[in-house]
Design goal:
This protein has one domain (about 5-325). Helix content is about 70%, strand content about 0%. The chain contains 12 helices and no strands. α3 runs antiparallel to α6 and α7 crosses α8.
Amino acid sequence: MERRKNQSVELCRIIGALIILGHHSYLLGRRELFVSGWIFVEFFFMITGFYTAKHFEKTAHGDLSISASTAMGYVYQKVRRLVPFAWAGILLGLLANLIKNGLSPRDLLALPYNMLFLAGSTLPIDLPNYDSPLWFVTMIILFLPPVIILMTKLPRAYRHLLCWLIPALFIIYNVIVIGRVAVWESCPSRLMRGAADLMLGTGIFYLTRLFCHARPRTIALHATKALGIVLFGVLSWLAICSPTGMLDHSVGFLCLAFLATLLLLANDQNYLNNDALYRVSMHLGTLSMPLFCLHHPVERLVQLAVPSLCYNTKLLLATAASLALSEGLMALWSRRQKH
């Protein structure tokens, strides 16, 4: 069986999605763990930037055929895979709103606003956001096309300067204005956060390419993979166990996420020679995005359905329901694609 994908990265994706689910479990009651889980949104942004740069590697020396329509086409294909799950999450969020507050014209007016992923933007429109984690998709739609244009039209300037300078300036802006990297408010700082993370992901690709061109010895490849897994473990431990949210150290926390992602992606070799394990890893990695799109409204519905249960029981129910719903919708979508 041909193993083209990085098995360890796929496993890290599902771990990241589960930690983000735990991070949003404040919806279920007082949360003591997962307070710093926001860092895995950064992880997913950087992964997206990395694979975008990898896709356009052939244009490294400039390709005038790459246009805005080409960039938008790439983003469309990427977002298209998420749309069924994102829209399902939005409809579940609408259901949660209806159960809690009843039906109003404002709720119906907000539905197309959410379906077009405008609720994750910084537009000053006071309408309900039915699935707030989907601001991730909004940022991809807004910023991936211009990143692709810069990356392909100005390859040298982008690779050596822009993919580092622009994120640094955006991060500095956030720290000065908000006091941290992680921003949830609908304001320019949210735009800065999303754009910076995507561009850092493209920078990771250029660093990994330099590493590969250096033709590292086998021991260096093994060490890189092992260190990446260890740093990812440290990142996960901090995201789960740190009670502070790491907001006072958000720049350092982001640097740790950057380094862990860099080391994980620097070595694409899969060392476990087992086809069944590879298939499971790929499936779990694919499952991470439906889980990301669906977990937030599921947690809201669980809280509405059984508010008196203890936090741990509700978290277990929400996790099980989110995974089952993600699996079911993914199976339905795959069947539809085959037909």
